Amino acid sequence: MSETTVPVTRTAASSAVSPVIAESPTVRGRRARIALRTLQLVLALFYVVASALPKLIAHPSAAEGFDKMGWGSAGMYIIGVLELAGGIALLIPVLQSVAAVALSGLMVGAFVVQLTYFDGENAATPLILIVPLALIAWARRRHNADLLRLVRRRA
Questions:
Q1: What are phi and psi of 90, to 5 degrees?
Q2: Is this model's pTM higher than 0.70 or not?
Q3: What are the DSSP calls for the chain, one per residue?
Q4: What's the CA gap between 5 and 18, in Å, rounded?
Q5: 54-100 pLDDT, tens per residue?
């Protein structure tokens, strides 16, 4: 019984960046892709339904907080639209990494607001949300090159 081997050549692009587990063709990679996609779906639902919707319909609980900060309804609607856009973008492959980074930035702002205006009452929530967003941004970072190509092609 003979064994045939095929030489493997590495290109500059493949050696520069090692494969991401979430994009690996192995069983472990498949499970990681499913887990990551599930995490993205849960976060997208959270941002759209639990976070953006109360702001966009001017629910009294959301309006009260923005009035206390002095931002009024304009600030509430702006933040609501940003959360809605970020939640939807988490589900669009070419925008996933950028959306996760943008939502992380929004959560840093939410953390600062919680500390300054609300005495840190719910300050842990934005910090907790940054962790899975950072994971998504890192795992989907290869999509940034696709997005950059798309933007350059349009310009």
A1: -60, -20
A2: yes
A3: -----------HHHHHSPPPGGG-SSHHHHHHHHHHHHHHHHHHHIIIIIIIHHHHTT-HHHHHHHHHHT-HHHHHHHHHHHHHHHHHHTTSGGGHHHHHHHHHHHHHHHHHHHHHHSTTTTTHHHHHHHHHHHHHHHHTTTHHHHHHHHHHHH-
A4: 23
A5: 999 999 999 999 999 999 999 999 999 999 999 999 999 999 999 99
Is residue 89 within 8 A of residue 96, CB to CB? The reply is yes
Enter the tokens of residue 140: 């989907």
Q: Show Cβ contacts of residue 28 under 8 Å, excluding neighbours closer than 6 positions.
A: 21
Please write the tens of the pLDDT for every residue from 107-145: 999 999 999 999 988 999 999 999 999 999 999 999 999
